[in-house]
């Protein structure tokens, strides 16, 4: 019997046809219909809508209290800044290990199947960021990673063998990649990091098969471009608006949604009067051509480091009796926004944390600045929220079941101090512009998981945390919300009421998206902490 | 954009003075007179060549810095370090690092700046040269000694005051003593006489802080907490650990008490109070001065 199987296998090899099983093959249509396979987790945020929502409901309000660790994986060497969110497909999990290693695990057991580590330069320039990776994208039979030295690499999904490797941008100039790519149709869309090094941001698309660049959308204009007039001293040195996290996609509208970061220098705005397009904005980009369809700038002329790089959450909901296509965004500037995602039209915006920098938003969603909230030299200006904002890059979650938008909110302010540096030519030596903050003492700050009515931003409930947390959120059809505290708790709340139902101290905060998948009839909840990748399941 | 994240499985414990009232003082806000005073004191500490700046003796070498080098260290710190560690080193997206050179030694701190460390600190070897790193370390040494003051008492007499007041029942010096209050083996390095005097007379005013969480400045250490459980027990003590679901106290007898917050009816935190008794009225002015002199001279054993 064994011999017969061996002969069969050898025959396939000698026939010369590649052995291609249907498993771990993820054509675009499969990602598009990710709702039909809730056992998988096919994109960074679970689907093109980045809802961080799982349709699985084996783990629910009644039984979540008995959730137990199923397995743990730890890289052979300790890693720093583990923010890696996995892709799970056909029983295999694809994770990244900082800075830029990709590893395939057996999602049943946590055992390692293959691992790929690119050759990185001895010295990686990482200014204003850490050389980490938030995960891979998968398309057809390849997985894709953006590396700390700004390469995009395609790997064979079965073996980790390199299919192609392209140089996206110059790391010496401060460009780096930390965000997961977004795979759609036949292309891989990637953003870039480096605003603190005063790089000029862009969004790129590459041919998924060959790595050939298909288009590049610069996210700041230069002299003569539309929007150059928003850089008051001329746009010759326009910098920032980096695209360092993940985006979302609406196939019906064929629009990619991607947030942009702060202008540079950040805490010193002397040389850049004006709105500084397209910094701190949400961009809607044509999925084929890379042309900008519309933009919405949350924080014109930003100088508190309030990037808008959180993954935009797409959802459909009824407003004024009409089903609408919406995008929800809990912005670092402290406001929760709802926009029409076909047109970019502002629908509503309300603070979801204490904020002191704006008197409110006008009818178009533009902030009306409050006086004396700019960073100043010397002792600085006390502003709410703090430098990492109402929430930073950690993904929020939307549950179609409850209609609620869940966000890990930061309740704290800081003294903002103006920097003195300017943009210089040549490789950056450090954070361009300097400046910074002095944090408020811990006892004056707290965090909370807040459930907002997704269409209005109205607070439905909150679960308070000891400290502001940098932990993403997952909601599930089991009526649960999973998130964590910065003190290392990982917990489940009732999605309707916020009541805590289960918790475990993991020894370190979860910095990756909690996700859920299912294998052989068992639902798993997965998250990382410290050096560990941890899968939970019911006994 | 600052996508920084940190890994602190173990709380980083450092001593970060707060102004009474809780506002952290900006290093930028120092009058020049301060710098002069600090430099003068450091000259005394170093006790040798001019101008110089003393690192902890266990390092076996001092950081030699002229005032302009110290100023350059401050600028380098502000340009490269402050966005994460705060302009006063009191923490921002990164940890509070005030006092760290006193605990780790200047060589190790220089090494961390050069090579980075797991948990989030990036290597700066490509951005800063050895000289600039030394200047930053020299500047870091100044961060905990804001409220300086002068030593006027007699350290030998102060040792007797320390013993007769039973300070050692709560504090440890060079391995001898209790564990309820902070260890004082090197307190003379990280704290100036004025801070020591304030703490002796008004122990709750200026509690040290530990940088524990990512987002904020330090959390108060030795915070006085009263817990009343749902079954009616009352426990007073200092907080030794806390997360969103638990709190651990150490009572005045040195016993640890761990509570789940869902089993607690009242949790009263009392910043401004301390389990340490005030020495006001118990010690004479001379005795306080002597005790300050003794503590200010504690620099650790080489």
Task: Describe the protein.
The complex is a heterodimer of chains A (539) and B (302). Chain A has helices spanning 2-15, 28-32; strands at residues 53-54, 68-73, 87-89, 92-97, 101-106, 112-116, 137-139, 142-146, 151-156, 162-167, 182-184, 187-190, 202-207, 213-218, 248-250, 255-259, 281-286, 292-297, 313-319, 322-330, 335-340, 346-351, 358-361, 367-369, 381-383, 397-399, 404-411, 414-417, 436-439, 446-453, 459-465, 474-476, 480-484, 489-494, 500-505, 515-519, 522-529, 532-537. Chain A is mostly beta strands. In chain A, a hairpin with a 3-residue loop joins strand 4 (92-97) and strand 5 (101-106). Chain A is globular. The mean pLDDT of chain A is 94. Chain B has 302 residues and is of the alpha+beta class. Among the domains of chain B are: 18-140, Cytochrome c-like domain (Cytochrome Bc1 Complex, Chain D, domain 2), CATH 1.10.760; 224-270, Roll (SH3 type barrels), CATH 2.30.30. Chain B has helices at 32-46, 67-80, 82-85, 100-104, 106-115, 130-140, 155-164, 187-190, 193-201, 285-296; strands spanning 12-13, 172-173, 176-177, 209-211, 219-220, 224-229, 234-242, 246-250, 256-260, 264-270. A five-stranded antiparallel beta sheet of chain B has the order 9-8-7-6-10, with no helix packed on it. In chain B, strands 1-4-5 form a three-stranded antiparallel beta sheet, with no helix packed on it. In chain B, a hairpin with a 4-residue loop joins strand 6 and strand 7 (234-242). The longest helix of chain B is centred in the first third of the chain and has 15 residues, at 32-46. Chain B is flat. Residues 1-62 of chain B have low confidence and may be disordered. Classes of the chains: A mainly beta (539), B alpha+beta (302).
